[in-house]
Amino acid sequence: MAKINENFTKLKKNYLFIDIAKRIAAYKEKNPGKEIIRMGIGDVTLPIPAAAVEFMKRGANEMGVKETFRGYEDTGRGYDFLKKAVADYYAEREITIPLDDIFINDGAKSDTGNITDIFSENSVVLVSDPVYPVYVDSNIMGGKQLIYADATAENGFKAMPNYNVKCDLIYLCSPNNPTGAVYTKDELKVWVDYANAKKAVIIFDAAYEAFIYDKTLPRSIFEIPGAKTCAIEMCSLSKTAGFTGLRCGYTIVPEELKAYTEDGGEVSLRDTWTRRQGSKFNGVSYPVQCAAAGVFSPEGRRQVQTNIDYYMENASIILDTLRSLKIPCTGGENSPYIWFKTPSNMDSWQFFDYLLENIQVVGTPGEGFGKNGDGWFRLTSFNTHENTAEAMSRLKHMLR
Ligand code: PLP
User: Fold this and answer.
1) Are residues 108 and 246 in the same domain?
2) How many domains does the chain fold into?
3) Predicted confidence (pLDDT) per residue in 222-267, tens digit
4) Of the residues 97, 153, 161, 179, which has the maximum number of CB atoms within 10 A of its CB?
């Protein structure tokens, strides 16, 4: 008799975006002619940069020629040409990343979830509340114990460590999804010192690092002294370069990073992750890795910046609107997400329905990211200028 992994029965019934999709579908059925503006889901709208297309075409052509055809990649960890491009990207910030520490993957979601495989099922995992739900769900599936650190208006939505709390794994996301908050170097240093003191490991999700304009803010945890003995970094080209449909990202597991056996023996996490990937992952397709290399080429970097500037102009439109309405908000300055207090103390699902009913704008209820998200709401800057401006004009009109 096949028995289920009962951890799956502990998951919340519906994924947030399924709930949202259902409410939109129900509204559309009742109001067929109404035009809805989606400012909720975090998918991008601009196409991938031309340099990525060119590099991908070259890669695809090579696959059709006997001499340049490529089958399985030897290690499944990514071709050196792409790992070198990633290492150079970090070198610009004076961070040295050896190629062997880089693992090319099919986007950050897989690895933020899969990384939990290599840690003991007795691990205590600390996440912030509100939180990107993938961290929670994948650790519940793996039977780990979750504890929460509050991220609230009082601490600028940046949870900080409490030395009285014991944990083994810590998920940090900066710029944060959903709140848009970004840790400073000093704040990250507090986390790095805490993790080193507790022999804990930080999983640092830097999926939105490319949206940081302020040069004083860290785009990588490896900008912080001491991070290589306590942190894994995950990054993605999804939002940076419109790769949500292409799928490519990378994880950095430093050689220096260790975890421990029950009897206190030291084990290399890089070797353990290599072993795990060797058994469960056969790598990213060659043309997609070529496209990713195109993103890191000089012309690719310029094109990516143009797209990010476009989204950040949307973020400014949203921020200006909320500020003019005197609504408390965060994010939007070094992040594509804007997080704001729902007006008139509505709970976040009430506000979701209110927006949909009155102005046909869809956002994401903060409550879907944890209890501290209740009474808060997330908008994204990934729509077009026209739609963003129209949505904000409707919002202004409604709230005035
Ligand atoms: N991490 C965060 C914080 C995200 O918001 C997302 C996507 O929305 C991801 C990771 C996953 O991105 P992908 O799997 O497309 O690289």
Assistant:
1) yes
2) 2
3) 999 999 999 999 999 999 999 999 999 999 999 999 999 999 999 9
4) 179
Protein residue closest via CA to atom 1 of ligand 1: 207
Residue at which a domain ends, from 261, 296, 331: 296
Q: Give 156's pLDDT tier (boundaries 50, 70, 90).
A: very high
Range of the domain at 386: 14-43+299-399
Q: 315 and 279: one domain? A: no
Do 254 and 146 belong together in one domain? Answer: yes
Mean pLDDT score, 328-340: 97
CA of 109 to the centre of ligand 1 (A): 5
Determine the atom of ligand 1 nearest the C-alpha atom of 108: 16
Tokens of 186: 């000093």
- My answer on whether 165 and 202 are in the same domain is yes
> Which positions ≥6 away from 229 have C-beta within 8 Å?
196, 254, 256, 257, 258
Instruction: Specify whether the backbone of 272 is left (phi greater than 0), alpha (psi in -120 to 50) or beta.
Output: alpha
The mean pLDDT value of the chain amounts to 96
Pocket test for ligand 1, best of 106, 110, 127, 177 (most atoms within 8 A of CB): 177
Cis peptide before 175 (omega within 30 of 0): yes
161 Cα: distance to centroid of ligand 1 (angstroms) = 24
| 326 and 394 both lie in a single domain | yes
Q: Is residue 9 part of a domain?
A: no
d(Cα 70, Cα 293) in Å, to the nearest integer?
A: 17
**Protein residues whose CB sits closer than 6 Å to any atom of ligand 1:** 42, 107-109, 112, 132, 173, 177, 205, 207, 236, 238, 244, 249
Pocket test for ligand 1, best of 105, 134, 248, 380 (most atoms within 8 A of CB): 134
Say how many Å lie between the CA of residue 358 and the centre of ligand 1: 30
Q: Give the Å distance between the CA of 207 and the centre of ligand 1.
A: 6
User: 234: CA distance to ligand 1 center in Å?
Assistant: 9
The CA-to-CA distance between both ends of the chain, in Å, stands at 61
How far, in Å, is the centroid of ligand 1 from the Cα of 34? 30
- Count Cα atoms within 13 angstroms, Cβ side, for 385: 6
Q: What is the mean pLDDT of residues 192-198?
A: 98
Q: Are 358 and 218 members of one domain? A: no
